[in-house]
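Researcher: Here's the sequence for the chain we discussed earlier.
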Amino acid sequence: MSGGVLPGAVRAEYPLLQSCTYLNSNSTGAMPRAVEAVLAHYWNTMRAWRDDTWDGWLSQMQAYADGVAGLISAPAGSVALDVNLSAHLSRLGTCLDFSGERRRVVVTDLEFPTVPFIWKGFARYGAELVVVPSRDGRVDEALLEAAIDERTRLVCVSHGAFATGAVLDVARVAKAAHAAGALIATDAYQTVGTVPVDVHALDVDFLMGGAHKWLGGSEAAFLYVRPELLPTLRPAATGWLAGATPLAFQAAEDFAPDARRMMGGTPAPLMVLLSQPGLELLKGVGMAAVREHSLKLTSRLMARADEAGLQVVTPREPHQRGGVVALRFPGDVDVMKRLVARGFICSHRGYLRAAPHFYNTLEEVDAFMDALVHEQRKEAA
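Model: Thanks. This is the structure I predict for it:
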């Protein structure tokens, strides 16, 4: 399906949009109607089960992984799958040595709670967590650069902040990390699918994301690994799928040569199958068109917030923001709850967050802001 003028015909592919004004794709994206057929096919497979089903499932999972790789300009074989980012990041941690002087993991205070929690756990193996503070909803790249030195093992930062939508200049941070001899991993859950992402341009060693937000899928998370690093990674937290020949069901002699070495045990194929239609629709539209439409919608949200005198926490410059607009005002939690009750679906993570996607319209944004301003005025009265 080509982009044309968004949302166009693509809107009809998402049944959820018929029942509400859905500006919540940063939390959970709408799923396309094609998912229903996937569920039916899965049930038909299960009620007539044969063990050779796994051959097809693993092939489909690899095809999805390679499809994600194409979306982020990565080569086939460089993306592994699991059920969430926590599994990927924890497994990556078991590949790293924290016993020497180079033991620091540098993060920011804008990371999703998973990230610092995991690295605090690795303190038992010698890891030392360094947290760079943010200001006004974003992190100053110069402060991050200053925190990176010869003691840094890994820089682990978000490409897009989950609470504010602020986009970090990851390429700049990667340059500093590599200059210090450190690796860099980035959480791109809040950018892949709404912001064009090129792992070569970012120059990252690892990039993580998932399907259930901007990719319109289910709980299928992915990990990109710079291909040159793959032979050096030997995770301690592993499973049978990471072996060179898993379907031989023999004791593994070595890890798989590609990113599959970063997988674990028996996977959840349904989550990947459910995510394929959303990925296909997004790639059919094209990320350039998605981004152009997203900026148009988020700019309207910001303009309407300014007119109403509401604080916009999200950075204004297009290159510094993703698909989220975060607003702050007294009573914003209660306003969010009343909006949801009225069918205007948004979320709150420290701020009221609105997140339109390529299937949303300017009319929806205006209707949402009309309702928000009405509820905010009631709250302030």
